[in-house]
Amino acid sequence: MSSVSNVLSVRWESPRRTPSLATRLTAWYAATAFLLVLLATSVLYWSLTRAIGEQNDQFLLSKVFVLQKLLSEKSVNDRLMQLEIAEDLGGPEPIYVQIRSGDGAVAFETPNISPELVSKGLARAHATGGDRTSGYKFTTPSGKLYWIMSIPTQSYGPSEAQFQIDLAMDVGDDESLLRHYESWLLPVLSISFVMAVVIGFQIARRGLAPLDRLTQIAGGIGVSNLNDRISLKGLPTEIRSLAVAFNNMMIRLQNSFGRLSQFSDDIAHELRTPLQNIMNVSEIALSKARGAEEYREFLESILENSGRLSRMVQSLMFLARADNPSAQIVREKLDVCREIERIKEFFDPAAAEAGVSISISCSVGLNASLDRTLLQRAISNLVSNAIAHTPSGGRIELQARPTSEGIRIAVADTGRGITAADLPHVFDRLYRANAARSDSDDHLGLGLSIVKGIAHLHGGDVTIDSEPNRGTCVTLNLPN
Amino acid sequence: MKLLLIEDDPTAGRYLQKGLSEHSFVVDTCRDGEDGLHAALTIDYDLIILDIMLPGRSGWDIIADLRRSGRDVPVLILTARDDVRDRVRGLELGADDYLVKPFAFAELVARIRTLLRRAPPRKSDVVNISDLTIDVRRHRVVREGLSIDLTPKEFMLFSFLAERAGEVLSRTLIAEHVWDMNFDSDTNVVDVHIRRLRAKVDDPFERKIIHTVRGLGYVLRV
Q1: CB spacing of A384 vs B153 below 8 angstroms
Q2: What ipTM was estimated for this complex?
Q3: Domain boundary among B86, B116, B146
Q4: Closest approach of chain A CAs to the CA of B92, in angstroms?
Q5: Which residue among B82, B102, B179 places its CB closest to the CB of A346?
Q6: pLDDT, tens digit, for every residue of A178-226?
Q7: Were both Cys, which of A33, A278, A399, B39 would link to A196 (CB 3.0–4.6 Å)?
């Protein structure tokens, strides 16, 4: 009993805590969503920087074209020309320029150009050859940011002089735009991470809700509501198959429970009759004074009924034991033909009285390691059934053959047989083909169940073939 | 013969004691394990009948203690559990036989007699009961001077009944002894054998010697 209640009260505790399905789904979902957001913002940031750089290049190149045009028209040393250049380069974002002639002398310089820009920034442009159509970013030691371009050019027109034009544009505003963008990155990423977790958890919970429902129904199953089923409506495919499996399990449970309660019912019925007899007989015996002979008769009747009860209880105990997977049997090496011969000898007179003959067909020297008492009991049950159901003039044959894994013993008769409707049930406990229960005192309808139990105890099985009015053959397959 | 019965159920104890006394055994009864062990260790009994489920000290402990103290008195175990492991355990501990409840009283008496006869007085070759003579060696039965022809199995059955003359023998015991069939038979097979035997040894004679005891079995009584 204690083991049963232990099984029933098992709690959901795994030895090491494994994360729940919802947690796992949430973690995966959040991580994926966060990575996607991170990737998107990085790409955006990168393309923004690139776009700003290209814009700066375009702008500075357009200035170069203007300067080139001016240089072609007038001498660079012209005072008017210098004013024109200065005006052209002015504007909200000041551009610094240094124009050098072919021999390297500075021909023009924006008036307020800072010396550190000239010495560090422009000097580096010269050093790298200075022929490029894209600029680069330069930070002066004092922290100012410039976009620098250095373009060699040629004035066309009369002079065709060589010039090197170096330009530098203050891009502090661009930079502060990028800083601004960066400063937003962290909060945006944090918020999206939190949201990914929250939304992911919600999604996981919604997705797993049918499982919760399943758990609730399974947890509420008891003897009284074994016919509860899980509705398949609206269940996702994966959970649907689980629910179908669960429902099928419930059907099997309900069936075996039904059989079990039918069995208890039958037992109670079978026990009731002899008990009733014992009670009646004792009461009547005690109701008045009687002679010794009368008392003796009463007591004999009580003893007979007790014997019936006792045999039933012992058969039921035997079956309960055979059901127990850890039940043990005592195997010994047996001369199978000798055992069968002995059983035939035992039953011969009873068979002869019924007008039935028993014959043996046994492979010579057949040995097997079996439980002797159980084997005797199984074969005796079968022979006793065969005699009871074979009309006078019939035959019973006991056969024993070796098989690849053990032996096969069959009891075949030419008796009345069993109808196809009854055949699947004959191994059920207390099942009797003809519903008349009071059929016989001693045939309890447990005989074939006991044979089956004995086969199972040996790790084997039992099969039955029968045809009405032709006969029945029960075959035991027993592994060695 | 002096027996010790260790059995906690008062009804079972009282009736077993009464029944055994009527079979001319002297019976002491103990109701719990401690008293039982004490009695078994201090008094010389010919046999001990021991229930396994006992208050105080279990039947297993009692056998173990008995054997440890060097007592080899025969022990017959009574139990409500018919389990191969229990049976093996009992025999390993040094029990001599084993009966599962419910059992027939006749069965108990038969087994007690068997245990007490363990070193049997030599069976005589010829059994004489009133007008009946059974020659065990030559397989011959003579009644009222007439020789009766029996098959080997019929002879075994008849001589078994004769050896235990006056003792009621259950069908189970007969099947076990004569055919070596070890099961509680539901069938009337033994009855058929007895009927055939009667046809030869009783029917031709006026005085019947094989008697049916309803609900119990058979007895040879002159």
Answers
A1: no
A2: 0.74
A3: B116
A4: 14
A5: B179
A6: 888 888 888 988 898 899 899 989 988 888 887 887 888 778 877 787 8
A7: A33
SS3 B213: strand
Closest Cα of chain B to A266: distance in Å? 19
Categorise residue B216: left if φ over 0, alpha if ψ from -120 to 50, beta otherwise.
alpha
Residues 6+ apart with CB under 8 A from B210: B161, B194, B197, B198, B201, B202, B218, B219, B220
Tell me if B85 is assigned to some domain.
Answer: yes
CA nearest to A328 within chain B: B84
Provide DSSP, A65-78.
Answer: HHHHHHHHHS-TT-
Partner residue facing A373 (CB), from B100, B182, B185: B182
Q: What percent of chain A has pLDDT over 90?
A: 24
A430 touching chain B per CB within 8 A? no
Contact B215 A311 (CB under 8 A): no
> Do B173 and B206 sit in the same domain of this protein?
yes
pLDDT (tens digit, 9 = 90+) per residue, B182-194?
766 556 889 999 9
| Chain B neighbors of A353, CB-CB under 8 A | 192
Q: Write out the residue range of the structural domain in which residue B81 sits.
A: 2-116
Do B94 and B172 share a domain, yes or no?
A: no
**Do B27 and B110 lie in a common domain?**
yes
